[in-house]
């Protein structure tokens, strides 16, 4: 079981008893606005939770979708890192509206970057998001990622086409950034 403490939150493997809170989180219309209809369905939270729990049994493990939990035990969202050979990984984060603007997402992504670069030994971590998701892009830039590419109209859902943005950071960039921001 993975358990990563990070500034008043805990990133940990999902458990079956997380399902009611995870369903509640994913049912928020604002939460769903950058997800396809398929990913927003009523049964999707259960399907995802089943998948997240089964991924932790894989050997070697290459997918880590973790619950973001408050110090009081509230499920705040999830974040994940997926190894994509050779030496690359993708990350993602989803957070309940109640915790938007609190810093929780950046704490979680910071912890994922550290886990990816130090524990999983990947060389590059990237995030792909819908270009209109300005909060996700801002989050990536806050943790040191830079714009790598945009793919115009490469997704179609909710009756329209969407452009995606890819941001990334290398291990060398991440380590240099840590040295610059190290408390003295």
From TrEMBL:
A GO molecular-function descriptor: acyltransferase activity, transferring groups other than amino-acyl groups
Matching InterPro entries: Acyl_CoA_acyltransferase, GNAT_dom, N-acetyltransferase
Residues of the N-acetyltransferase domain: 9-172
Protein name: GNAT family N-acetyltransferase
Naturally occurring in which organism (per UniProt): Paraburkholderia acidicola
Highest classification ranks of the organism: Bacteria, Pseudomonadati, Pseudomonadota, Betaproteobacteria, Burkholderiales
């Amino acid at each position: 079981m993975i358990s990563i403490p990070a500034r008043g939150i805990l990133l940990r493997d999902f458990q079956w008893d997380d399902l009611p809170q995870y369903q509640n989180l994913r049912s928020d219309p604002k939460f769903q606005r950058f997800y396809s209809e398929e990913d927003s369905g009523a049964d999707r939270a259960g399907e995802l939770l089943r998948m997240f729990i089964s991924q932790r049994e894989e050997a070697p493990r290459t997918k880590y979708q973790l619950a973001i939990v408050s110090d009081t035990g509230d499920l705040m969202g999830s974040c994940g890192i997926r190894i994509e050979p050779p030496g690359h990984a993708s990350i993602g984060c989803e957070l309940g509206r109640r915790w938007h603007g609190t810093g929780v997402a950046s704490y979680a992504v910071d912890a994922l970057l550290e886990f990816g670069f130090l524990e999983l030994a990947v060389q590059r971590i990237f995030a792909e998001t819908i270009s209109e998701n300005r909060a996700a892009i801002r989050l990536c830039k806050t943790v040191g990622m830079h714009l790598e590419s945009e793919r115009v109209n490469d997704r179609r859902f909710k009756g329209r086409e969407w452009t995606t943005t890819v941001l990334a950071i290398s291990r060398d960039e991440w380590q240099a950034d840590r040295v610059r921001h190290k408390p003295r």
